[in-house]
Amino acid sequence: MSTATELTIRRPDDWHLHLRDGGMLKGVIGDASRHFARAIIMPNLVPPVVTTADAAAYRERIMAVLPKGDRFEPLMTLYLTEGTDPDDLEAGHASGLITAVKLYPAGATTNSHGGVRNFENAMPALERMAKIGLPLCVHGEVTTPEVDIFDREAVFIETVLDPLRARLPELKVTMEHVTTKDGIDYIKSSKANLAGSITTHHLIINRNAILVGGIRPHYYCLPVAKREVHRLALRAAATSGDARFFLGTDSAPHVDPLKECACGCAGIYTSINTMSCLAHVFEQENALDKLEAFTSLNGPAWYGLPVNDETITLRKRAEAVTYPEKIETEAGTVTVFDPMFPLHWQVV
Length: 348
Ligand code: DOR
Ligand code: ZN
Known about the structure:
This protein has helices spanning 22-33, 52-65, 86-94, 119-132, 152-167, 181-189, 208-211, 228-238, 256-259, 274-284, 291-303; strands at 6-10, 14-17, 38-41, 73-79, 98-103, 136-138, 173-175, 194-198, 245-247, 311-321, 326-329, 332-335, 343-347. The protein starts with 5 loop residues before the first strand and ends with a strand. By secondary structure, the chain is of the alpha/beta class. The chain is globular and about 55 Å long. It binds (4S)-2,6-dioxohexahydropyrimidine-4-carboxylic acid and zinc ion (ZN). The site of (4S)-2,6-dioxohexahydropyrimidine-4-carboxylic acid has 12 residues, from loops.
């Protein structure tokens, strides 16, 4: 175990974040902008962000509620549909507004019903993206009812992602929120144009957190947490320093009544305590010296953006650092991720 008690790193970025809209956006934006300089903003609003004009309007709504004094850059994405206009993508990318395009297989997760069913129909957009170097962020799960939910990521890699990458080798693909050893191995085996983001919570929980001793809806997210062997593979990849892996929290707030019910929503809210949790994980793995690569260097390198000039300092305190169990927003109460161990690292 390392004995460091202070760590200064480049200011981190979050390469996968749900900010929502309206009262929820207002309630969660400050938790993201407090520590993170930039974030890739997910487009799965209701209705989704499908055109460059939608993204421009959403960006303005985000900037309008940013706490005064915070410098935070939302990196906007478009939600890929079978009707996405390649010219609109290209114009959005050329203007600097659009950083990536998000693929949700239809039915895979929250507000994904407008996503892609038949990939042939999305090929014109995907071909254009490959041509202009606009990255595709992928929710990598098949939705076929016959496929077990714990196998959906592995089956997606084999039946969708690998054939797509073979067809469009120039397409730059971020496999988001990787949850399996299969995903890690696939990324490691690729020669080019593939990287993966990993969430904070998938480094900490396995599927027992959701199911042992009662159903715990606040640990339910998609892709669902897997067996311990997968969590260990994620931890090894995240703490290895390998430039193909970086942080994407997938912090995804839902109000408590929508989590604590007979058919609860997927999503875990981690913006507020992510850096504390990650320092704990990296220290446990004797890899505090790799935290900066994971949170602040590998992501910008992949997306072709400069690293942040500013730094943040984390300090390890003898007493536990506490975070609120819940936050209140105008949309309702949101439960904060509980890592189930005391946190001692704090951003000062
Ligand atoms: O857990 C998740 N929540 N996974 C997703 O893919 C979507 C997200 C959400 O929007 O709530
Ligand atoms: Zn997400």
